[in-house]
Protein 1
Amino acid sequence: MCLNNYTTEIKKSEDGKQKNIRLSYEERVIIELLYKKGLGPTAIGKELDRDKSVVSRELKRHKEIRYIDKKGYYIERYMAASAQGGYTYNKKKAGRIAAVKKDNRLKTFIETKVKENSWSPEEIAGYIKRNNMQFALRPSFQEIYYWIEHKQLNISSLDLTHKAKLKKRIRTNKDIKEQAPSRKHKSIHLRPEIINGNKEFGHWELDCVEGAKTTKTTYMTLLERKTKKYIVIPMKNHSSDSVKNAIDGLEKKYKETFSKIFKTMTTDNGREFINYELLEKSIYSEEKRIQIYYTDPYSSWQKGMNENCNGILRRFIPKGTNLTNIREYKLDTILYKINNKPRKILGFQAADVLFQLEINDIIKAV
């Protein structure tokens, strides 16, 4: 900026000193003009009624060195516009750095667990604490929520399992007619009280997850109440025969230990579970292999742990997905992620680990 004279008024307080601590653009214009005339920090400071150290720091920060090709030497210059731009840029960058940004490992760990594994902030914080993971800091789940809300992590609220809102299903008369009649002698209210405490191994909640309406493939899902182990078995269709075949497959897999691993199953009154006599009967003898119990009609909360895991499954396989296209390795990967989540109810341990410990004890006792 080429100005031969400067008449910019510098605002001062009543005692004659500068009002503002920071240099204004007008002051930088004056510095440029006086510096071109060869004045140093002391002389410029007197003209601005500033301490010489203020001018000296300003020149040190924003002074440019330029090489003159024709003359073959370097010159130093100070440009008010350039200095003002540098100051504005630095001011935007200034301020406290978010704690999570100080440790990129922690930031990556949180983002991966939420977006790829559907962990909640509480599960992440609990897992870090339980395993004494070494990061720059050990965050609480409240801090992780704060970082998400203030966009300090590459996570949106929709990435959180319990943030996404599902449309409430409106039950029609058709739905009601298709419900199987409740079996009072197999009611959940007649189930042994010990099951409610989740202290004894071998009691499961049973349900089905349907895919696209244009296909028949369905998943049978089971959840063990003590360890929270979650099992998903693909079925050809949503029928009682398919459910029986799925349970038969479990009996063939575990053989003589089946009745120790699967003591009871609690399910709803859907027609696919109507033939409880067949579900209870062993394929190897006339004896019962398991006890079936039914929840009250329209009371999904009575098998809420299974419903919760079904919701997590839907995060990986959205409603309406053609389940026929889900390959076995992909389903196995999803189940691995679900069963290795650090569950708060398990003291931030994984269901897979606790389930395997129970299986090992059963095998030793056989």
Protein 2
Amino acid sequence: MTDLSHLPPLRDVIRDHDLRAEKKLGQNFLLDLNLTDKIARAAGDLSGCTIFEIGPGPGGLTRSLLGSAAQKVIAVEYDPRAIKALEDLKEAAKGQLDILHADALETDLCSLAPPPRAIVANLPYNIATPLLVNWLRQIRNDHGNYRSMTLMFQKEVAQRITAALGDKAYGRLAVLAQWLCEVKLSFDVPASAFTPPPKVTSSIVHLRPRTLEGQEPAFETVENITAAAFGQRRKMIRSSLKNYIKYFDQIGLDETMRAENMSVQQFIDLAKLAEKD
């Protein structure tokens, strides 16, 4: 465990490096180290893992991850101001921390370190959903790509990921995430915990990849079907999924159903049949 007790408070780091949170970068900084420690604990067993953090900012969560049993922390940061602000932390970490100046949306994390890998991040709100979809695609290709993902989203997005069948929030994200992972909403984080405070509550979601049994459909097939289904979610599936109507009887789908009443497994079964043709 790295001793970081001599480092300055995060507020001093922000002041000394003029690291004002930029709205265009989706930045809201967590400065309460008790809270960042709680996020690191929510990630579970990190022993031996390379941990990827996206958007570390002044390094609050980074400090907590360095205090875990992780073998390595790789922080991916787009903002050059934060890169400079993290230099003292990198030096104090004595080789346990790497900082990559890059756009996370264009970065293949799996190419940066061998497994086991995990992702723990307070995601920038403006790119959180596409990042999650990219990582789910990697998990479909190999469920061993990540041991787990512990991610902060706007609460509304977290509810869409963890929603149960029939819930108002149940949709494409729930199907994709719950097909490939066990998902759990760990806890909420109030807006007041951030600097500056956002206008919404945030939530921590923990995702652990499932071991898929048998032949599963391609990620793109499920993506296309869920996009069609929930793009017209108020319509019956005989309309929204008209291109797949010939398969309905084989998996017990009533054409007058709406997408929100289709289970994750029914979406996967529909994708399997579509791929057979």
Protein 3
Amino acid sequence: MKITTNKVTFDEPLYCESGRILQPFEVVYETYGELNEDRSNVIIITHALTGSHHAAGVYEGESKAGWWDGFIGDGKAIDTTKYFVICMNNIGSCFGSTSPLSPHPLDGKPYRFRFPVLTISDIVKAQIRVMKYLEINSVYAVVGGSLGGMQALCYAVEYPKFAKHIIMIASTAYTRPWAIAYNKVTTEAIRNDPDFKDGYYDPADIKENGLKGLAVGRMAGHISFLSPQSMDRKFGRRYVGQDGLYELFGRFEVERYMEYNGYNFPHKFDPLSYLYIVKTMNIFNASRGSDTLEQSLSTIKSNLHLISFSGDLLFRPVEMEEIYETMKNIGKSDIVTYKMIESDYGHDAFLVEIDKFDDYVKDILQENI
């Protein structure tokens, strides 16, 4: 599989929904496979909250594959022998695209809190700019899960002629209080950590030492990515072998797992980016600018394919079902499909249990569904 990584800089301003602008701004993107002659084989992959442009394959000298490597590649569901796949790092993220730690054009110092609050629409608008730069005016499909699913739906609503197929996985039309509440724990933990220094920390210090507030918040968030059943199966009531049962801070295996994921995370993800992306997730509402979800979805012309997971506690199946029923109620049943995957893994099933839905996605892309 051919992998290329590039960065493009745009000098023309990006006008954000908030009324703020980004000028200039940069987007890092990765491509897989080959673009065909008539440019008809393009698939956009949109990433989740902590994802990046590195969706598949392995970089030279590294062992860790991209975050959706089981799904994208030669002969896989997103078959890179057939499709030219592109994944762009969201603006606001900390993996190379313009973010809160990027230099402000006025003084060269990091934006920090001068960075604008972004919406999903802003992120997709920046991606559309990349596609125009690549002289790609339409794509075969847009595929994304979680926050990436929000982006996929945004493509469908705001750019109705851009994609033939939209595949929205484990996501929602608007973020509910349950998810916002989990995000609040992380936000408060970060803001109240003295080492956060009110946002004026040294990024090198965070990368070396981590940030306890982000670690604790990530632990809370990680609970929402799993489910009670998957935790039972993965950990049971097993206790860490070297910890004493009657030691006050002795740990169950699930506690050690939370510590490992929580305390490693801040070494590779910037806390300001996390705060900004969480805000983007919280304010997402596909009906913004419209009076009702019906009016918003009425613009859709792409084939909209919805996939949920029965054990997803973050974005529950009922949230995807609402989109499906709304599409049917407004007379668009001919361009919408919905499938709930039986899974008790939790929200992260879309990253982990790929074998449960990859054949279904193949059928969608082969237009057998």
Protein 4
Amino acid sequence: MSETLDFSRRAYVAEEMDGPCSYEELRHCLRHLAIVNRITLAHQHTLRWLDRMLRAPHAADPRRTFRLMDIGCGYGDMLRRIERWAQPRGIHMELIGADINANALRAAREATPATSRIQWVLGDVCTSPETQEVDLIVSCGVFHHLDEHEIVRLLRWMDSTAALGWYVTDLQRSATSYRVFDLLMRGPWWQRFIRPDGLRSIRRSFRPEEWATMCAEAGLAASDVAIEPCRPARLCVGRANPNAVLASRVHESGSTALHREPS
């Protein structure tokens, strides 16, 4: 690195993909981000969480449809991955992708097969009518783009909205992550935002203690929130609704499983 960077504190630096750019350039960037997500196994953590969360309620009622919403869905690659994961397992899901960027949703629609039933929503998830009654809320690689007060607001909303639980996968700030990404993304084939924005993203991301502070500010008890470093270079934060935890425990004990119906 040509400069000494301080990873003990979050950096407040702008990313090029968050600024004005053409639709074609944004779409190109999102396509390459989807490749980076595959290379770094970004979606595997969400899929493992969904497997844990849905095992008991799906066993209790295999016909039940679970409503899942993705905050900041971008190119929609995580939702398409979830759709492919759920189908062979016989898990019925209604998938909703929400984003505040109309061009990102346009790119997501174009990349999604016509047979898909994913619904795309433009707007603020906290106020959009289509995102208010859901079982599960997920997000991947989005929260480091937000200010702390925006994250606290979202945490409160997610906790009051998701009937079963919510799960956020984001980057973890560290010098090692920065150096490894810097090396891996050196190449003329990557869209021009990928490497510089990725490095800025790592500097903008959070550490476990910072997530714990934001969760506390949102009124969430430390014992109710799981904050887990996950390889490679990810930090996952989630909470299961107590009723969902009870359902899982009852099911695993061999008794009749309980589940909470969405309001």
